[in-house]
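This week, think about what follows.
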Amino acid sequence: MTTPTERAAAVLGTRDFLERLAHVGDDSISRNIALQAETLLRHYPSNSEMEVICLALPTCWQMPVRQKNA
């Protein structure tokens, strides 16, 4: 069973992945994939929107604790 924290982490992780795909500066992926990632991001919840969702629905969504890079 997915916990509220795991659910939010998956959404935030997917946003991060799509952002990296959309902004790859070399030829490691096709431009078509980068454009698809950009298109999906237009309607994807931002981090601040996820915070609001988590506050509004804490039994379904909970912001994960982000660890600082060492």
About this structure: The helical segments are 4-22, 31-41, 47-56. The chain has one domain: 4-56. Residues 12 and 47 are 7 Å apart (CA to CA). The mean pLDDT is 89.
